[in-house]
Structures are given as C-alpha cells and as structure tokens.
Amino acid sequence: MSHRYMIQDLPRFITGLSSHDLRLQSVVAIRTILSVEQNPPIQDVIDSGCVPSLVSFLELALDEPQLVFETCWALTNLLSGSSAQTNYMLEQEIVPVFVKLCTSDCSVDIKNQVCWALGNIAGDSVDARDVVLAEGGCEALVEVLDAAEQNSGNLKPNAIWALSNLVRGKPQPPLSVTGLCLNSVVRELMDANSKMESQQDILWALSYISDGSNANIQAVVDTGCIPKLVEILRSSQGSIRVPALRLIGNITTGTDAHTDQVIQSQVLPVFRTLLEETRKVIRKETCWSLSNIAAGSPDQIQALIDADIFPIIFSLIRTDEYMVIKEAIWVLANSTSGATAAQVGTLVNMGAISVIVEVLRDFISNRQLLTISLESVENILRSGAEGIFENPFVAQFLSNELMDVFEELEDTPLETVRQKIDRITNTYFSQTVGENATELSE
C-alpha cells in the first residue's frame, strides 16, 4: 500500500530517524517527499538537519540493507539539486562512504543507487567531480562495472553513466586516473548485449578522454575501438552516431599515425554516406572529422580524393545550412594547405575555385568564412606559382570574377580581410590590375 507523504509532515519523520523502530519508515517518507518531479523540497530537507543522520545509516549496509537502500535513494535525490546543495552534501563526507559501498559486499540495489549518486555528484561541477576522483571513485566504479553480472538490471548502465560524468569537463582529469576505465568501458562497448544508452555513454566518455593530448588519443586507440566505431557509424541509427563521430574526430586531431589508423579502418566510404544524412548535426560532425584528415599529409588528402569526398563537400558548401557550411569549408581549406601541386590541380578541376569565390560573395560580412576562403585562394595561387610556366589558376580566378568580389570588399571594416586581399592582389594579380588601370586611363 502506497502512502502520500506531505512536506508538512517532515518534522515528524525527522524525529522518527532517531527511533530504531521508525527510522526505515521515516527514511522512506523523506525519500518519497524528495521524489516529486517538480521543485522537490531539497533545501527544506537539508535545513531540517537530517543529512548527518542519513549518512550515518550508510554504515549499516550489511545489517539493514533495506534501510541503506532507501537512504541511498533519498541522498541521491538530495544530490540532484543546486551546486550549493551538492557542496553541502560533500561537506558531510558522503563521497568516501559511497566509494566504500561500491567495493563492499552490499546488495546490487544499494550499489545501483550509489552509482547514481556518484554520477549526480560528478555531473554537478568540475570541483565536485574532482572530489569523487580524489576519493578513488573512478577505481570503485570500474570495480562495480567489472563485477556486475549481465542480469544485474541497471547496475552496469548506471556505473557507465557515472564514469562518463567522471571523465567529463575541463580542466581534464589526468590520464593516470581516467585511463583506469578505458579497457572496462570498451569491453562493454564491444559486448553485443550492451544497451544502446550505455554504448552512447561509453562513446561520450571516450570522446571526453580523447579530447586532449596525443597520449590521451593513443590510450583510446590502444583499446582497439576504432573498428567498432566504424561499425556503429555504418549500421546504427539515431543519436549514438554523434559521439562516435566526435570520438573519431578527436582521434584525427592527433598524429598522422592516428589519422592513418582511422583511414585504414575503411571509414571514408561511411563518411561519404553520412555527408548525405538528413540530420544536419551528423553532416556537421562528419565534415569536422574530414577537415582534420584534410589537415594531414598529402597521402591522407589523396585518400579523400580517392574516396570521392570533395564533390559532396562542394555541394554542401553551396547548399547546406551555415553550421555545416562552416565545417565543410574547412575541409577544402585544409586540403589546399597541405596538398601537392597535382592534388591542388585535381581540386581545381573538381570546381574548387568557383566554390571559393561563391563563398566570398555569399558571406561577404562573415569574418571567419572570408578569412578561411581567402587562405584557400592564396594556397591555390601559391601552388600554381611553383611551376616554371604562367600560373594557371590566375585566369580561372579571374573568369570566376574574383576581382569583382575583391572590389565589393574594398570598404570592409575587417582589416585582416583587407590585408589578405591586398597581399593576394599585389602578389598574383598586379599585372591584371595594372592593365585594367591602363585601359581606364586610355
């Protein structure tokens, strides 16, 4: 039989905590009062002074498991409030007790609630996260995850979610701590029985860890997760693709060797398909990953050319929404920066020059896109000037009316843009400008 407990009855339940016979009923009542979806009376319960009593009950996990389970649930609800309320809870030395419960022989139900509570704390703020890490929370949650049976309900998912909160945030926790969970979470990622929600949390956790130094990226790569990421991108649907793309993108910000491993996983044909996904966030994240590859070696740029990536990139630049266009332009810009002369020629033959001029014309007030596009102009012209013959790209830029766009930008308030235009004009188009001036004077 369920009971409807009211906040007005809270003083009676607080008094009941001091009675051995009434304390379980009182904790259940407090937990129920805190379980309302809107505006739970967290501060009222804290102000009642009952939290130290609740924390003391956690020592009874083996003797009174139901009491401890209900207490953990109530404390978890208290930890879903504001940062100030969470800080108060931390001052009650609640984290060391939770960590101890993780590694004890207490029930699965209790450990499930403890994982949830630790996840709430870690998700509140970086400072709260660091308290959990300093008390050995990462190691304790890994122990819970490794020991959990397949039929342990939500224990694995909750442990994974808590771990993902522990490795999130800036400044990033040290790899010596976050690296402790890598093998365990990747094993769960590979498990065919792993829930989709857990896989998503794992992918976000790996993306947080890999969003750092090359050492962090190497630690993630060493788990052997890349083929699984490609499999997820190829066969999965929905939001799980976003963290998978973010993780691959992070890996491609590393060394050329890291990017080579991604390319060798046959991800580029998958990327080509994802560029035509209906969800713009997927197209955006895919372009970001491709822009990182394009910033690599000529061999990596050639892989993009061979995979027929650029025709779709050019189409996105012309037709997509701004958030996608911005990332797609970086794919082109980065490619023109590191490509060989022959590769630049290939990009030009695909229509790169007309695409760049269109961006300059369509985004004439956008500092970032203007800057990126002007750098692409300069990269292409510089490549064309390397030969012993006349620069073949000058005429192509002129036929695409680049100088008309430059005229439109003469009065731009963006000084760096004006400087780039002056440098490009004086270096590659001075003869053309001089000829035009002569014609006008005649």
Give a structural overview.
The chain is an all-alpha fold and 442 residues long. It contains 30 helices and no strands. The protein has helices spanning 10-16, 23-34, 42-47, 51-57, 65-78, 83-91, 94-102, 108-124, 126-134, 137-147, 155-166, 175-178, 182-190, 196-210, 214-221, 226-235, 241-251, 256-264, 268-274, 280-294, 298-306, 310-319, 322-338, 341-349, 352-362, 367-384, 392-399, 402-408, 415-428, 430-441. It starts with 9 loop residues before the first helix and ends with a helix.
| Chain-averaged pLDDT | 93
Q: What proportion of the residues is helical, as a percent range?
A: over 70%
> Beta-strand level of the residues, as a percent range?
under 5%
| Rg (C-alpha, Å) | 29 Å
What overall form do the CA principal axes indicate?
elongated
The main β sheet shows up as:
none
Q: What's the helix count?
A: 30
Structural class determined from secondary elements: mainly alpha
Distance between the termini: 101 Å
Low-confidence stretches: 437-442
Order of helices and strands: HHHHHHHHHHHHHHHHHHHHHHHHHHHHHH
Question: How many E strands?
Answer: 0
